[in-house]
Specification:
The protein is of the alpha/beta class and about 450 residues long. The chain has 18 helices and 15 strands. The strands form four sheets. The protein has a seven-stranded mixed beta sheet, with helices on both faces. Strand 10, helix 12 and strand 11 form a beta-alpha-beta unit. The structure holds pyridoxal-5'-phosphate (PLP).
């Protein structure tokens, strides 16, 4: 099909929705390093994970071999409430940029939680329910994951306890109330309700919290409460697996409408949306069937890929979780409080870390004022007010499209547009008032975090 004859929105029919998830690990020659036990430094066994995670999710976490995993019918039916999500041709943005590049975006913000996180939340809630559990605990940073999980738990009638990073709890009261409307119990973290929360409060008085702290608290409550397990909205292999629905739909739409992407760009916090979006394309690249340029975009203030170390580290500040081999800034890393755009996690998915280490993808770090300039331009041309996180990807897509303008190249760029920015208006307010600042940690700043990375020779 000629690109100029394309419809604006490239819809799939419901009947064209993928019925399996795709596990990119099956096609990786160098598998992601396993989670290890912090005491023994041995790969975690199924039984060792059982107190923390749901059984079926542990199986998915450990499965490096099964290429396609059936999506249970209940999950597929839930997906159909808000999926397939559209792949949209950004014709107005292209025009504004006056670029020969073709830009498309896959929008995941078309559900009440406002982001892609619901794709994994509903899967994790389903497996918890199927196992007969009472409820789940989790952390949330900006609030999207907590909202998505609250929706999923309400659907399956599960209890949901959310530890919300304190700075967001205070800055985003509306997020909190959405979660409570769906029945979740929301606690600001670090709290005084857990051992680890009390310890972190004592060591860092007045701290505004971090995802790493909130994870520690949620895990502590899960393992000490009968019938509860912990669930996580990013980073883990299982989450990337569930998010592959984004990439599978994108690939189907590309095939249906005759689009061949050159560049696929997504923001990277813990790596789940990007891992999901690129999964089937990466599979082709790994199998030598096609080539694509994949770009992970992260904030300059939390630069795990571009300036982090590839090493085993704790996944949480309180060191109650297993250790993962990943690009990390150190489990003690707490991003500057002036950082408004999400993507604050100190580490990165082991799958993406391995792929990046092996040269299959690139990464860029961008400053937040530049990110919001891109967000503004996108909102004014394409209509959607993007989440700050998603706007990192928009920034780099625009930069790539402007490069095409210089070279005259007609590249096709796909953006993972992960969510809406309705709950991020404080950040937009700072930007609109001209009070938003950039923060780039110095090498000395980062050295403090690196010094705390445990010395695991693996
Ligand atoms: C959570 C979130 C992200 C980042 O998480 P990943 O696991 O890296 O995908 C990006 N965009 C939005 C809107 C989010 O809610």
């Amino acid at each position: 099909m000629e690109l100029k004859n394309l419809p604006y929105k490239l819809y799939l029919d419901e009947s064209e929705m993928p019925s399996t998830w795709y596990n990119v690990r099956a096609d990786m020659k160098n598998k992601p390093a396993p989670l290890i036990h912090p005491a023994t430094l041995q790969p975690l066994k199924f039984e060792e994970m059982q107190p923390i995670f749901c059984d079926e999710l542990i199986k998915q976490e450990l499965d490096n071999d099964t290429r396609y995993i059936e999506i249970p019918e209940e999950i597929l039916n839930f997906y159909k409430m808000y999926r397939p999500s559209p792949l949209t041709h950004a014709v107005f943005l292209e025009k504004a940029l006056d670029t020969p590049a073709h830009i498309f975006y896959k929008f995941e913000g078309n559900n009440t939680s406002g982001s892609h996180k619901l794709n994994s939340a509903i899967a994790q809630a389903y497996y918890a329910k199927k196992q007969g559990l009472k409820g789940v605990t989790t952390e949330t940073g900006a609030g999207q994951w907590g909202t998505a999980l609250s929706m999923a738990c309400a659907f399956f009638k599960l209890d949901c306890k959310v530890f919300m990073v304190k700075v967001s709890y205070e800055q985003k009261p509306f997020r909190r109330e959405v979660m409570r409307t769906y029945g979740a119990e929301v606690t600001p973290s670090p709290s005084m309700n857990t051992n680890v929360g009390r310890k972190i409060n004592a060591e860092h008085p007045g701290t505004t919290g971090s995802l790493g702290c909130a994870i520690s608290e949620a895990v502590e409550v899960a393992v000490s409460s009968e019938g509860y397990r912990y669930v996580l909205g990013s980073v883990l292999n299982q989450v990337l697996l569930h998010q592959s629905i984004i990439g599978l739909e994108t690939k189907k739409a590309c095939e249906k409408f005759g689009i061949k992407p050159d560049i696929i760009v997504g923001c990277a916090g813990g790596g789940s949306n990007l891992g999901g979006l690129i999964a089937p394309f990466m599979g082709e690249k790994l199998r030598g069937e096609a080539d694509y340029k994949f770009i992970a975009v992260e904030p300059a203030s939390c630069p795990s890929f571009t300036r982090g170390k590839f090493a085993y580290d704790f996944c949480d500040t309180g060191k109650v979780c297993p250790m993962a081999k990943m690009y990390t800034l150190g489990h003690d890393f707490i991003p500057s409080p002036n950082h408004a755009g999400g993507l604050r996690y100190h580490g990165m998915s082991s799958v993406l870390s391995q792929l990046y280490h092996d040269g299959y993808m690139e990464a860029r770090a961008v400053e937040q004022t530049k990110v919001f300039e891109a967000a503004e331009q996108f909102a004014r041309t394409e209509g959607i007010l993007p989440a700050p996180e998603s706007s990192h990807a928009i920034r780099v897509a625009i930069d790539e499209a402007l490069k095409c303008k210089e070279t005259g190249e007609e590249k096709t760029i796909i953006i993972g547009l992960t969510g809406t920015g309705y709950f991020d208006m404080l950040a937009y307010e700072q930007f609109n008032n001209g009070t938003m600042t950039d923060y780039i940690p110095t090498d000395d700043d980062l050295a403090v975090g690196f010094a705390k990375i445990p010395n695991v020779a693996k």
